[in-house]
Amino acid sequence: MRIEVDCERIRRNAAAIVGMCAPHGIEVVGVTKACCGHPDVAHAMLAGGVSVLADSRLKNVRRLRKAGIDADVMLLRLPSLSEADEVVGLVQISLNSEVETVRALSRAAQARGLTHQVILMVEMGDRREGLMPDDVLNAARTICALPGIDLAGIGTNLVCIGGVLPTLENTQSLVALAESIEQALGMRFRVISGGNTYDLDFVLRGQMPARVNQLRVGEGILLGVNSVTKNPLPCPHQDAFNVAADVIEVKTKPSLPEGPIATDAFGRAPHWEDLGLRRRAILALGEQDMRIDGLRPKRQGATIVGASSDHLVVDVTEAHPPVRLGDEMEFAPTYAAVATAMASVGGAKVVWSISAHG
Q1: What number does CATH give the domain 241-352?
Q2: Phi/psi at 190 (5° precision)
Q3: How far apart (Å, rounded) are the C-alpha atoms in residues 130 and 258?
Q4: What are the two backbone dihedrals, phi and then psi, of residue 71, each rounded to the nearest 5 degrees?
Q5: Under DSSP, is residue 305 helix (H, G, I), strand (E, B) or coil?
Q6: Which residue, of 45, 84, 115, 244, has the greatest Cβ tally within 10 A?
Q7: DSSP letter at 121?
Q8: Higher pLDDT residue, 329 or 273?
Q9: Which pLDDT tens digit goes with each residue over 294-348?
Q10: Is 33 annotated as catalytic?
Q11: What φ, ψ does residue 259 adopt, rounded to 5°?
């Protein structure tokens, strides 16, 4: 299995999104987590005009720093108490929802003689990370008094676990909450971090509330699509990634399994239809390599039948050109497929540099 990454296309997408957001005063934070902090991808985002990078894992940030990338980095996943010192040493900004964790960051920042920026995350309905709105003022008041900590602003995240969509109503509620805290504490937040790729639709329609001045964008830059609808954004490329795998068997077989049916290797209960004899190819690619349901065959007429940990079964009866043993089949991956493939230690990765494709 191989995943190919065209960094020039990522650069162009980043430039398009930065250009889209800049007239509205919105900073684009380029999210590198799907590519495990690959330095070439980070360089492409920075070359496209992104000023801040973001990742969810410290090991990915270490990879960026080892490659000599000194841009500001935001830690997306809430820090662990045990990580406080390393967080302060590696990143300039972190998202937080626990006051006790920010106290630990404060102690670590003081010990290093640094100031660490914090964005306080607010629960706006998706039921992932964030303080409930009624608790934000007291938390903000406490954090503002901590030495070595700069409370840069507040933010939220939607879509990712509860599937709750950002709306103008919940985005405006975030802004209203920020302004009420500002009034109570006699301060003004530098940052209202409004969300992720999906929120770009509000920017395109000119509907984003004026105080929202930061979006954390990964899928929009990497794949050039809306993260929910998968509709193309006004980016030049939706094809910066390509997955390829070798065909290791081609046989004509009955489409209906024979014998008692139980769950498959991953505990799923499969449903089969009798389509008669079908020509099937098996590829050296499986669920252990990536999210197979995030792949779309590029060869016309080919359809994915299913996968186990190591084998991908593709119906190639109507494939054009015909599939033969030893062929390499290519697939267009979704964001989930990219993220899992890049994290897989078993897959070879080909990352093309910016200079390789003009």
Answers
A1: 2.40.37.10
A2: -80, -30
A3: 50
A4: -65, 155
A5: strand
A6: 45
A7: E
A8: 329
A9: 999 999 999 999 999 999 999 999 999 999 999 999 999 999 999 999 998 777 8
A10: yes
A11: 115, 175
